Amino acid sequence: LVSNSEHVPGLQGAIRAEILEKLLAAHVAKGADEKLVVIGHSLGGVILVDMLSSPLRSGLPEDFHVDALLTVGSQPGLFQALGLFLEPEDGKKTPRPPCVAAWFNVFDPLDPLAFRCEPIFADVKDMRFDSITGVASAHTTYFKRPQFYARARRRLREIGAIT
């Protein structure tokens, strides 16, 4: 992964630029007493963790802050286990991105593209979610289940990210 948004060529650069634009727009539009909740599904979660791990290098302002990050059916744990994110200190977990106050990683055990993060990252909470489906559709079912929204809403309320 590339942690520098200054000049990333091709499709990768275009995707990062699009995400950066959306994050900056949300940051600017957010009122002083409003919270920012960011959700990334699958590779979108990986890109968010990469960008938020080095916010200034990604083009985000110094005061950029995410109250809650939800990675859903995503692979940050796998990418970090492969050494593709930040280098942790020996024997320690990789720190949560510095601009993120709370991180929930939602995974379905049947989803072959979803990985846990708690064993790899510090201060992340894995949320097991059973989509009540099969292996072939588990990765695309999270957002189709009302239970997903109910559980996410409860967790976000618990930390004060939503009312």
Short description:
The protein is α/β, with parallel strands linked by helices. The chain has helices at residues 10-29, 43-53, 76-81, 135-138, 146-158, and strands spanning 37-41, 68-72, 103-107, 125-128.
List the helices and strands and how they pair.
Layout lengths: L9 H20 L7 E5 L1 H11 L14 E5 L3 H6 L21 E5 L17 E4 L6 H4 L7 H13 L5
**Span of the ends, CA to CA:** 35 Å
Sketch the major β-sheet: 4 strands, parallel
Content-based structural category: alpha/beta
Q: Order of helices and strands, N to C?
A: HEHEHEEHH
- Percentage beta strand: 5-15%
**What's the number of helices?**
5
Radius of gyration: 15 Å
* Multimerization state: single chain
Overall mean pLDDT: 92
- Percent helix, as a range, is 25-40%
Give the low-pLDDT segments.
1-5
Using DSSP, what is the number of strands?
A: 4
Strand order of the largest sheet: 1-2-3-4
3D shape = globular
Tags for this model:
163 residues; alpha/beta; four-stranded parallel sheet; 5 helices; 4 strands; disordered N terminus
Characterization of the model:
With 163 residues, this protein is of the alpha/beta class. 33% of the residues lie in helices and 12% in strands. The chain has a four-stranded parallel β-sheet with strand order 1-2-3-4, with helices on one face. The longest helix is centred in the N-terminal third of the chain and has 20 residues, at 10-29. It is globular, with a radius of gyration of 15 Å. The chain starts with 9 loop residues before the first helix and ends in a 5-residue tail after the last helix. The model is unreliable at 1-5 (pLDDT under 50).
